[in-house]
């Protein structure tokens, strides 16, 4: 049968458009495929002779013609590509134990068919081992042309390690949302297989796919472990393994039609050497069914099918085993992880430290290494606001190309981050590294707070009058508020200075309320004068104190400006916010907002008292006490929560330390009423009902803060707890 180039081009155009072929075109296309299969059989005999000549014994050779689905995809991917230009219609795969055998076979075939062109002629080669594809694929692809028919045969030569990688990609690609070979898969899957390719390249000593050329095995495996925790790829490969549906005896068979049906069952039909036409007919009929994945292959043993085409058995065990060989590598984070990750690698008994900078937190979920790690020993903190912004951005990026039914909510994205940080924390704890695990515990709680907030907001939007659901919503709200309070109070027991500052703030605020109360209820003019005369001893030295104080203030301000510039240069704070007059005004307005909200809460309680106090027979003393005590609690919480950095934290804290020091020296009994009782210095005003309630609330808050203080100190200590 004569096959013209124009007829093949027309058939290719119809396949590209998914148009049905006529009977004549179908017969012509089948004949053309069968012709390639026959040429491939002839090439197989030549290849076996070369392998015997080289003395290579451990190998697997498999042959197949390209599936209609693959032909259609290639024609659509390359619009100007004609059917007769596809080079791998006939494909042969040679799988060897090691790279040495692979190179020997490649060199022998290339050399022989460059000189001897009586049967086959060497055409060209794609060297994906020394120049890996962007997705990490590695193999030699040699193209040979049959002199008589001009049909092309592609021979792929790869190691078992390279073959296990390609098989795993084929299995994952069966997920409609993970088309890695087509370049449209999820980024976390693409990153995982690029890294695993880099790992195998490092093992075999070949060129590594960009941008991982400078990464050692330990570093590559560490990030593989992170990505696997994110996506559970190895678990999916392990669970996908299936057995074949045996319906006949495959002994002494040569041709096999292998197909994976919609129920993910592998079926194998075998044929003798004389039944090639029947095998082709069955293959062509099965290929028309789009719900199955079918291939016609030629092997000398049925047992080799699973090794040559493990993807048809969804068998990724070899890939999993090759990855898990490096499970004994341990990692210890040295620094906190935000925009930059600093890490220390410990491998067996030899310590090797890499302090590298990895830009962009999106490495956790998107393209892992967008920029090279070329800076050393850089540390930036991942605060709550930055993490919240990154989660929002990740959610937007994820949902860009997703259908509405597959889009992920902000709370679900936050949950994914939380699970990721939790797994890292558990790894560090398992490696007996609690200090570094503490940072990831903090990030985990950040994510939990964001998750609860977004989840609660979503449920409020879709409010239903279900008592159990409403109670659950209230429970989530309480947890969210508690997480927020402890974040502001002590950064989830990671910031000792922060919780200590809040302790001083609480004591100073309590002291101000006590003295304010006594000033309103008694004439303390004489006491005030007495306090002023405490400094009478220093009156004669006042000039010297003024000069020294002025010098300290000037040098202190200069030192503060110098430190601020240093911090600004280090962290590029000027890019985030300008420390200028506008910033100061905005910061002051944030403090006013906090004070307004602190005043608003007791006013609400007081109004409620005015409305219901008469019916409940509550006196004015109760309303007054309610106002004073709610003001105390709300003022403390709002000052802890305030967004005002300069006035709300620095100025207020400086003032708090001043008040605390004065009270500690002058009247230590004010720090807590119990101290006054022990020292027999109790004040008559402490018997007022309003102050009794204030003391109780103060004691509760003090207990919470002291508990956080000791827990923070214990968690940040190197002493085992």
TrEMBL record:
Transmembrane segments: 503-521, 541-562, 595-616, 622-640, 647-665, 685-707
InterPro entries: GTP_Pyrophosphokinase, NT_sf, RelA_SpoT
One GO BP annotation of this record: guanosine tetraphosphate metabolic process
Top-level taxon: Bacteria
This protein's UniProt keywords: Membrane, Transmembrane, Transmembrane helix
Transmembrane helix is among the record's keywords: yes
Residue ranges of domain RelA/SpoT in the record: 63-180
Name of the protein this chain belongs to: RelA/SpoT domain-containing protein
């Amino acid at each position: 049968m004569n096959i013209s180039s124009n007829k093949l081009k027309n058939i290719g155009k119809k396949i590209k458009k998914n148009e049905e072929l006529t009977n004549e075109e179908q017969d012509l296309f089948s004949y053309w495929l069968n012709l390639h299969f026959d040429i491939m059989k002839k090439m197989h005999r030549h290849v076996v002779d070369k392998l015997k000549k080289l003395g290579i014994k451990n190998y697997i050779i498999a042959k197949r013609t390209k599936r209609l689905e693959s032909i259609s995809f290639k024609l659509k991917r390359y619009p100007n590509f004609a059917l007769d230009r596809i080079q791998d219609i006939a494909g042969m795969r040679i799988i060897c134990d090691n790279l040495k055998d692979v190179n020997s076979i490649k060199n022998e075939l290339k050399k022989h068919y460059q000189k001897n062109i009586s049967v086959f002629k060497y055409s060209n080669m794609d060297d994906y081992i020394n120049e890996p594809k962007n997705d990490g694929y590695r193999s030699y692809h040699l193209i040979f042309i049959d002199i008589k028919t001009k049909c092309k045969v592609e021979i792929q030569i790869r190691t078992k390690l390279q073959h296990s990688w390609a098989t795993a990609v084929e299995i994952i690609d069966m997920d409609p949302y993970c088309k890695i070979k087509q370049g449209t898969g999820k980024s976390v899957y693409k990153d995982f297989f690029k890294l695993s390719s880099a790992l195998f390249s490092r093992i075999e000593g070949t060129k590594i796919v960009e941008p991982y050329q400078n990464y050692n095995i330990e570093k590559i495996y560490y990030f593989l472990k992170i990505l696997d925790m994110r996506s559970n790829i190895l678990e999916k490969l392990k669970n996908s393994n299936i057995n074949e549906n045996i319906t006949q005896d495959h002994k002494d068979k040569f041709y096999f039609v292998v197909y994976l049906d919609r129920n993910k069952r592998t079926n194998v039909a075998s044929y003798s050497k004389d039944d090639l036409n029947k095998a082709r007919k069955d293959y062509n009929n099965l290929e028309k069914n789009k719900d199955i994945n079918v291939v016609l292959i030629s092997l000398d043993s049925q047992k080799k099918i699973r090794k040559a085409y493990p993807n048809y058995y969804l068998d990724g065990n070899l890939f999993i085993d090759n990855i898990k060989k490096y499970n004994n590598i341990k990692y210890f984070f040295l620094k906190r992880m935000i925009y930059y990750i600093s890490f220390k690698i410990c491998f067996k008994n030899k310590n090797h430290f890499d302090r590298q900078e990895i830009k962009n937190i999106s490495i956790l979920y998107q393209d892992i290494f967008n920029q090279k790690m070329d800076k050393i020993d850089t540390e930036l903190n991942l605060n709550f606001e930055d993490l919240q912004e990154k989660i929002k951005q990740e959610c937007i990026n994820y949902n860009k190309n997703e259908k509405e039914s597959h889009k992920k909510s902000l709370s679900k994205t936050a949950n994914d981050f939380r699970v990721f940080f939790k797994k890292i924390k558990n790894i560090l704890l398992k490696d007996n590294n609690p200090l570094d695990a503490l940072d990831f515990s903090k990030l985990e709680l950040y994510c939990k707070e964001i998750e609860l907030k977004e989840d609660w907001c979503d449920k409020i939007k879709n409010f239903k009058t279900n008592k159990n659901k409403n109670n659950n919503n209230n429970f989530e709200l309480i947890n969210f508020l508690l997480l927020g309070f402890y974040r502001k109070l002590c950064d989830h027991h990671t910031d000792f200075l922060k919780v200590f500052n809040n302790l001083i703030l609480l004591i100073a605020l309590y002291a101000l309320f006590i003295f304010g109360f006594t000033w309103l209820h008694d004439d303390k003019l004489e006491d005030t004068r007495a306090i002023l005369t405490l400094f009478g001893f220093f009156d004669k030295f006042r000039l010297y104190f003024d000069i020294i104080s002025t010098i300290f203030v000037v040098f202190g301000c200069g030192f503060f400006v110098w430190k601020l510039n240093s911090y600004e240069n280090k962290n590029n704070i000027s890019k985030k916010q300008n420390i200028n007059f506008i910033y100061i005004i905005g910061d002051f307005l944030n403090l006013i907002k906090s004070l307004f909200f602190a005043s608003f809460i007791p006013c609400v309680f007081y109004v409620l008292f005015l409305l219901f106090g008469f019916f409940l027979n509550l006196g004015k003393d109760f309303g007054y006490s309610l106002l004073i005590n709610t003001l105390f609690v709300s003022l403390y919480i709002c000052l802890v929560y305030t967004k005002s950095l300069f006035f709300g934290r620095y100025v207020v804290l400086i003032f708090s330390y001043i008040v605390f020091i004065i009270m500690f020296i002058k009247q230590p009994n004010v720090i807590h009423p119990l101290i006054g009782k022990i020292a027999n210095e109790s004040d008559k005003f402490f018997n007022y009902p309003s102050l009794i309630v204030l003391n109780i609330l103060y004691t509760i808050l003090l207990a919470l803060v002291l508990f956080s203080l000791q827990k923070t100190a214990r968690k940040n200590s190197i002493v085992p707890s």
